[in-house]
Amino acid sequence: MTQSTTFHLQTADVTLSALRAGPAAGEPRGVLVALHGGGMRAGYFDGGATPSGSLLSLAAQGGWAALALDRPGYGASAAALPDGATLGEQARLILAALRGYAAEYPVGQGFFLVGHSLGAKVALACAARHAGEEGAGSVPVLGMDINGITHRLAVAPSAANLSQCRRSLLRNWGPRGLYPPGSFRAAQALAGPPPAREVAEAAGWPDAYRALAPRVRTPVRLTLAEYERWWVCDADAVEAFAGQLVAAPVVCVARQRAAGHNISLSGAAHHHHFQVLAFAEECRLASLSGGTAA
Fold first, then answer.
1. What is the fold of 5-289?
2. What is the overall mean pLDDT for the chain?
């Protein structure tokens, strides 16, 4: 199994910490950029209690490089950004970091964004900002796979609720039996209170999404867990969420059975990550041919 290593990405403003994995030899097919949810860390995508569920390892085995970032306000950038950063600021910093990465390392056909929960918001913000930056010096973004998100929270966006992952009973993760033994204990090393500016911004997400969504011009795949409890994800909500992505060439919606909110830590992680990589590969092939992902 491919092991991830600690990595740092530099911007003019801050240093972002990350976990990185990649193929043993040769140029990668592309680079997956994984963005964690509120109050978590990059290790969310590295297997938790079951290393076989690591997105980073699976991507590397499939010939992709993978970067799981500690988003701005977490990890190495926490001291410089003690209150965190807004969605727009995070998008600016992350795209700048990816430009720097592309100047030093091979990126194959381009970057593919993976976002969970609040990280999905940031992925959407990155795609919307990228659409306005396309041209000389911009980074190639192939598409995105997001999960654990709609435009309507099912719980109040308070600091107490958004940091529930620190508690031993994680009711909004979904039924405990969906997660491998040891998952809740292992998650304590990843979890912490989300930065204050993220919490303050949470209530305005419906309006923020209404502004961002029409500017996203990359293929989007959305996965919702069968036992999602953070977000309203009935048929009407999902249709309304997907329907706002009017400029995206492809919008796919999937349901992940036998999973709660934190799919990448659940027993369904390996299956879900295969689907993520399959969509990433569709987007990569479409970019080579000048077509559109299926």
1. Rossmann fold (3.40.50)
2. 91
> Which letter, b or e, does each residue of 147-172 get, where b requires 16 or more Cβ atoms within 10 Å of its Cβ?
bbbbbebeeebeeeebbbbeeeebeb
What gap in Å lies between CA 95 and CA 68, rounded to an integer?
14
Kindly report the pTM of this predicted structure: 0.94
User: 125-164 pLDDT, tens per residue?
Assistant: 999 999 877 655 678 999 999 999 999 988 765 544 554 4
- pLDDT over 90 (residue 102): yes
In which order are the strands placed within the sheet that holds 65-69? 5-10, 15-21, 65-69, 31-35, 111-116, 141-147, 220-227, 251-260
